[in-house]
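INSTRUCTION: Work out how this chain folds

Fields: amino acid sequence; protein C-alpha cells

Chain under study, with its fold:
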Amino acid sequence: MSKYEIVIGMEVHAELLTQSKQFCACPNEAVAPPNTNVCPVCLGFPGSLPVLNAKSVDLSLRTVLAFDSKINTRCIFERKNYFYPDLPKAYQVSQRLLPLGEGGFIDIDVPNGDGTSTVKRVGLHDVHMEEDTGKSQHGESIGDPDSSLIDFNRSGIPLLEIVSLPDMRSVEEAEAYMTALRQLLLYLEVSDCKMELGRLRFEASLSLRPWGQEEYGTRVEVKNLNSMKAVRDSLRAEIERQTRILDSGGVVVQQTMLWDEASGTTQPMRSKEQAHDYRYFPEPDLVPLDIDSAWLERVRASMPELPRAKNQRFIEQLGLSSYEAGVLTSSREIAEYYEAALEGYTKSDGGAAKAISNWVCNELLGRVNAQNSSIAEAKVLPAQLRELVQLIDAGTISGKIAKEIFDEMFTSGRDAKSIVEERGLTQMSDTTELEAICEKVIAANPKAVEDYRGGKEKSFGALVGGVMKETKGRANPALVNELLKKALTQ
C-alpha cells in the first residue's frame, strides 16, 4: 500500500447540442473546411456584439437540475483574459463569480473487485457556461513539420464546464465518474459526448498527501486527454511521477502537464495559473442573465427520467436483476428500445419483462456489439422483436428456431411472421407425427436408452437432441419430453 493518499478532481468541458454558436448565428459544426463557420463575432472583430444563445441556456439548466445544483437565477458572464493563438479575442467569455449552477453532486458506482460496486457521491463545485476556443494544429497533422495553423470553426461553440470537488481517491473512481457523467449528459441530450471530436474533454487534477494529513498536496493538472483511456493512463503516470518526487524529498511544483501517449509520461506545459491571473471582469456587452420561474419550470418539464432512477424502477417494478437493469439503462437508446418492445406485451406467468430483457441483452446487443454499431442502427424494430417473442409464447416456433429467425431479421429487417411462413418453420406439435419420430430415435440409440433406464438421466438429453435434429429444431420441446418419457416407460 502506498504511503500517499490520492486526491483527484475533474474539470469537464462538454460542447452543447445547439444549432448555432454561443453568441452568434454561425453553425455549431467544427468538422467543416477550416475557417468556414466563422463571422466577426466569433473571430472577435472590433465592434461586433454577442447575442446569447437561448437554447444553450436551456441545455445548461437541464444539466444543473440533473446535478441538483443550486441555480443562480441571476448570473453574469465575465471576460477571462489570457493570450493564446487560438483565442481570437484574447479573452474567453465565461462565468466565475455568479455561475449558472453551484454545488450539486454525481453518484458513481465504484467497482469493489468482486463483481459488486459501491455507490459514492462526488460533489460539484460549480457548473458554468462559456464559449469554446479555436483549434491549433501542428506539424505532421497539417503536412508540414515546421508549421502551425489555426482553425476557428470551433471558436464560440457553446460549452458547459463542470467542475468537481477533489472527492475522488483512485483512478478507478475517476473512471467511474467519467462514465457516470457521460451517461448522464447523453440521457439529457445536451451533448453527443464524442471525445474523438473534442466534444467532451476531461482535465484531471491530481495531488498526493500522506495518509492522515488534512491539508491537500500540490495540485497538478493534466491536459491533452482525448479518451478515457488517456485519462486513466495519464493519472497513473502522474501518480508515479509525484510519488518519486516526494519519496526523494523533493517538492511537487504546481503546473499544467501534457499527456505524451507515445512515451507514457506527463510532460510540463506551463506553470498553473491562478484565478487572478485571468483578470476576470464582467462582460460589458452582455446583460445579466435572469431566469424566471416559468423558464425554469419549462426546462424541468422537458427532463427525461434519469439513468439511476430508471435503473431502480426496472429492478423494483419489472423484477429485473441489477445486471439486466444496468445493461438496459446503460444508454438512453437501449432503455427506450427495451421499453418500446415491452409495451403492450404481457405473459400469464408475469415474465414479459424478463423475456424481452433476455432478447435485448443477449441476442440483439450481442449482434450489435459484434458489428461495433449502435442499437439505433439495428434493423429489428422493437415491435418486431416483441412479435418474435410472442410467437414463442404461442408455441408457433421453438426458442431454437427463434434464434435462427432473429439472425435473418437482424440482417434483412423483415418481420418474424413472414420469415416463418416463407420457410415453413412453424413448430411441430402434432402428437402422432412426433411419436413416430421419437420411436425412430429410440430404436437408433439403444445404448442411450439402456443408460437412461439404468438411472443415467443425462442420457435422456441425447434422445431429446436426436428428436430435435430429426425435426431440424421445429419440434415442441415440452411435447418431445413428454412423448419420450412415455415411450421409455412402456
User: Anything to note?
Assistant: The CA atoms of residues 391 and 421 lie 12 Å apart.
